[in-house]
## 1
Amino acid sequence: MKAKAKWLVLARVQLMGAFGLNKLKHSDDPRIKKRAGGAIALIAFAVLLLAFYDVMIALAFAAQGAAGSIPAFAVAIASLVSFIFSLIRGCSMLFAAKDHDAVMSLPVTKAAVIASRLAVSYIVDFAFVLLVCAPAFIVYFVATGFTFYKLIAMLAAVIFSPLLPLAAATAIGTAITALTARFRYKNLLQSLLGILFFIAIFAVSFAVSFGANSQEPDMNALAEAIAGKAYPPAMLVSWAFAGKIWALFAFIGANAAAAAVFIAVTAPFYAKICTRLAAKSAGVAFKEKQIRKSGAFGALFKKEIKRLFSSSVYLMNSIGGALLLLIAAIAMLIFDPIKLLSGLTEEGIPPQAFGYIFGAAGLIFAGMTFPSASSLSMEGKSRWIMCSLPLPAKTILLAKTAVGFVFSAPVALIFSVIVCVQAHAGPLMWAALIAAPVAYCAFISMFGTFLNYKFPKYDWQNEMSAVKNSVPVLILSFGGMVLTMGMLAITLFAGAYGFIPLFVFAALCVAGCAALHAFFFKKVSLYDGAPSAPETKAPKRLY
């Protein structure tokens, strides 16, 4: 095997394992192929939906005569989103994987191992960048004309765009990991530092957005705010499409150099960081304490909370929606956008109409908090402990369900209260904006547990596989986004009668919760032969 090709072989092996391609290829179980088909269909629907929104935005640029800003805007948006999700993903695919000892025993260099693991992350980010940029560039070619040089510039922008955001986000995650590797509570510190970076990034983005000239809400101003201020490297793409070839080479060189520098700097410390992360914390002196009595549900709930905070990847990917909603609530307190928008509209739209719109928009973030979609899978090889507990399966699963609700519902309530106060809400708005998010948070948490029970993923080599690359997470991520975006559109057209669709939405969520409790939680069993297992149910496999 050639030395320079080893990282490609490692990347291929990791890619096949991370997304379950090996199991799909070699398994004879028809249920695995059926699940894969459902996941592919869901991803295809999400791709079409994303492409539709992308084309609509690009057409808005073209309609205002700002087609020349499309390439820089598309690259900037794709790069910023890739950076945020790479930051949330952290370094779980880079450090302390279960196969670390086996990989490091192979005749490969540390740089090859790092490059192979980054390659998997790059492929995921590249797929997203391609989905965002390709439809926008098609509209750009139709509006401005096609040339061979523009095609070359487009391919270079799409191929190299993910490198700089990925390297920057992974560098931040590596720094956090290295600084906290010696601490006893390293996982908690990594989670807290990651949350702080997450909040800081969105605070800066809010400042950039509101710092733009609100009196000129045209597409050129939007492109300048995003590409010129939020992500300046995208301006190189704009200059490249304007005919400046040096800008294209500068963009390629900056992205490639970022990845190369990260690998070169990290390689000497890679083994040390992995070793420290895998090492157990030092023990502490025994202290006699009085034993406090606790119920079974409370003990299970505390155990789930502890498991959530024991992994920065699990925490950041599970409660990211609650964090976004909290940031949005703080931004509303600072900027009061309802008052600002009411003053800018010439039609004299009342603040109550904006209140319903903001309340429905909050549902989008409230539905992005679902640790229950991964909690069963996170048990991994330790799931036998859960199955051996002398407790009903309902108690165990409801404890896992409650975690997501505890994180999402209070933040959703805070956001709704701020919206109601700023919109001068009446009784109907107060009731609608409180009932809808609470009911939705409860339904998402219960439905996440149901999906994770139906589509578990216990044989993961890396926590990211269970938290990110699983059918339940895909269904809740894209399905929830489609549902809440639809609710936002309906509320937008309902105007002052926005409480009607919100009440209907809340009623449907309550009905869904009741159905899940009656037909799933009351009858569920964790293994075949359990006392609560229905006699007519087919044997349940946990792998």
## 2
Amino acid sequence: MTAGAAPRSPGPSPEDDASEVSRSEALFHASDYAGAFDVLHARNIPAMPIPLLDRALPILLMSGDATLGEEFSVTVLDDVERQTADAAAPIASIVRTYRSEATAEPRRRAVLATAALEGLPAEAPIARHRALAVLLAAKVDIGEGLDGHLLAQIEEVEREIDLVASVDSALAQRGFLAYQVGQLDESRTALRLLKRKARADQQPFIESVFATHLATVDAYAGRLAAAAALLDSYRGETPVSPAAARALGLIALRAAEDVAFQEVLLQPTLQGSAIHGAFTRRALTGLAAARREEWREAYSQLSRAQMHARSLGLEEPGRRMWIDVDLARAAIAIGRPGEAARISDNLERLSAGARPILDGMAGRIRGVIAGSDDPAASIAILEESVAALAGAGFPDQLALSLLELGRALTRAERYTDARKALDRVRVLTGLTGDRAIGLLVDRALRLTSSDALLAALTSRERHIAFAAARGATSREIAEAGFTSIRTVETQLSSAYRKLGITSRAQLTVLLADHLRERAHDPES
């Protein structure tokens, strides 16, 4: 019998079925997923009474996924659906519940789960519990947030049933979903409890699932050492789940561990996870480019990651690894502020003033856009972004808003205020070990001190930089120094690169203090 063939047995009695379902549940509890699968795969599940079908089908699907891969569920459901095509509506609703779970597009999942809930009988509480969980996750995916009313319903149904797998519990849904809408503390509390229980119950596979998500939460929260410790067992393992790849990649990215980061990108993902794996790798590549401020590369990779996310129906920014804000920043850098503004508007729409993480991200985008036309407004908006993110629990996002604020203050020649903002970033990155942002703030701090910057220039570059900052043209500088215009432009470009700027206007702002001092110093 092939893995996808419908399980059949010649005329089993209901007593036999009940005994075998109980045996499969015990094996699943003991983490013997292959054993649980073998027991149920030998039974004619579609012919079981509704209460047994309600218990058996989820065990068959979960144990099959654990042993044969995620694509197995679809094969079995196709077979069960064919055999129950003429069955009563309640059985069709049970099948529809698991069909909704195996459906990739979240809006379609929500429709199927809602339809299933309307037809599920009282004898199928496990299917009702599952349908509610599917609907809850689908609503998160499409950007409607974590529905507390649905969570309460899941908890109510749980009081009527004995859950076989803790990954299905309402507490697990909080753990898996809360951090993806910005609620890190809620996720951490739930995942720690669940991980501890799985270890006590000697369920290593289930424990590893919770550990993986907890590692992602800790990575977002700037607890890189704790996150890395949770993933020790994944080092060098192949293939990995997209969730494990995400966690490993985030840790390596923030720690600026390039070799480890590349290893993550090269690791294949589990069977049935190809699309999610491709999205994860593309997103990580784009986020890494953004941290290096290689904006064209970041824009290219993150745009493709966003297309992957859309193909999966993911509209919640947290489900897209928060790539939206880095994509917007890259769009600004390559001259597409309108696209960035649309991303900011969407973040604010999803937040509706209730989610500080989204409001802070949107504010950072708007503040950077405003910088080219209204420096004062840019500073004010970025200060609001910092305030929104101060208590959101994402230190990297707070650090990035402070970094942009420090840069805006530097451009406004408010060097003391700029250094205060950037010093906060340095403290944050020191506490979290986020070396990727730490490298950016070091460069930004150099811009607040022209003395330190000028030390990096050769004497010739320094002379040309001051002449250009005073308003001399390249031709005038060349004639005064008995050299060519091309040589002047080359040395000026070198000075720009060392100073971290791109224009004469920025050069003039940067050297303004020195120019004022030289105006009063006849020997300068």
